[in-house]
Every structure is written in C-alpha cells, then in structure tokens.
Amino acid sequence: MRGWWREIVGLVLPVACGGCGSPRTELCDECAAGLHAGPRRVRPAPEPGGLPAVHAAAPYENAVRAMLLAHKERGALGLAGVLGGALAAAVRAGAGHGGDAGPLLLVPVPSARRATAGRGHDPVRRMAAVAAAELRRGGTPAGVLAVLRQRRAVADQAGLGARDRKTNLAGALVVAEGGRRLLGVGGVVLVDDVLTTGASLAEAARAVRAVKPAGPGTAEGLRAAVVAASPSAFEINRN
After folding, report:
1. Reported confidence tier of residue 1, pLDDT bands at 50, 70, 90
2. Which is more confidently placed, 122 or 7?
3. What local confidence, expressed as pLDDT, does residue 219 receive?
4. SUPFAM superfamilies under this entry (predicted)?
5. What are the φ and ψ backbone dihedral angles of 26, each rounded to 5 degrees?
6. Using CA atoms, how far apart are residues 85 and 65, in angstroms rounded to an integer?
7. Which tens digits make up the pLDDT trace of 191-211?
8. How far apart are CA 220 and CA 212, in angstroms?
C-alpha cells in the first residue's frame, strides 16, 4: 500500500528537483547531466576478494548522490527512469568483457527485508527493470532475474567500514531455489545502486559463483554495474 500511496502523492503534489531541490521540476537539466559523466570501470580501495569487474555511470556525489537518496529513501519514484537509464549505460560499458551468449540477466543485489518494507519499494529492482527495458530498446536482449535472497539477518551497512561490511555480509546471500537453472540461460550482470567498499557486490558474486553452471556466460565472465561509485573508486581508472 505504501508504494501505491507514494505514486499517487507524486502525481498530485508539487515536485522539486531530486538533485538540487529546484521547484516545479522532478529533475532539472543540470542535475540530469551529472549522470552522464561517462561510464567507466571502477575499483574500491582496498578491493575485496572476489569482486567482479564493475562499471559505474557517475561518481556518487552532489546531485547524483541526492537523486539516489531521494529515490531510495524518500520515494521519488519518478527518478527511476533516469537512474535506470544510467544503470543501462553502465551495463553497456562492461558488455564487451563477459563473453556472454544469450540475453543479459540483470541480477539485483537485495536490500534487507526490513529496509525494503520500510521504504515501501525495492529501489534497485525498480532501476534494474528500467535498465533492462532500455537495453532491449537498444537491441540488446535483457531481463531482470531477482534470484538473490538474504538467508540471515544483516546489520544496516550505513556507518560501517570496509572490514565490518565484509564481516556483516559474509555468507549472507544465497540463490533462491530454481535460480541455478535460470542463471544458465544468459550472461549475468550483478546490479546495485552504489559501489562504496564493494562488499555487497563481492558477496553477491560469491553466491552466484556457487551455483552458476558451466557453459556460455560462465561465472568467470561475471560482471557488475552500478549507477554510481565513490569518487575515489570512480577516479582510479580515469587515466
């Protein structure tokens, strides 16, 4: 019900830019431009073991950070379109690195059940659906495969450092029953909203590698894409 209510409220109440707060526009041109910095490979430092190649659309700062938080925490669902488009660009940037056969399978990294319930929506899954549609419009077969589940409770990642995040998430994710077969029909791209320490994507990759069948689009070709990455991770591959 909460998700429906937020969508109705967004239609009838005045809006403000999700990036800078300018009135009477959901997203101004200047803030939208921040999502087009040019997707590139990103790496956190230190880089966690098992992290696949990750591509990001923009640095996680300023208007981009504000947009992602508005969409995730304040229910600015109308921003899913532009954020999902940026995610699609990041997926395309890494498309030449997987050697995939079959469609691209965008696998969202799940949030804690409590966080999803509190927000009233699943922001990463919503953006993944937009990204898959954008890829299909561009001629790339793609779909969303939400097969990752949390098999134990995890603490809120906010405020945790790299080591604590890794400990918090270790062994927390599992591929749902039946997911193994589905993962075998295409190339897997793990998707998330933000890369900070890389712990979430590394744990998601571990869970997928544990069940990914051999053949085209194998676990060795696993890769990931995010809307944004910390500025330091984004800048490391500039040159």
Report:
1. very low
2. 122
3. 45
4. PRTase-like
5. -70, -30
6. 16
7. 999 999 999 999 999 999 988
8. 10
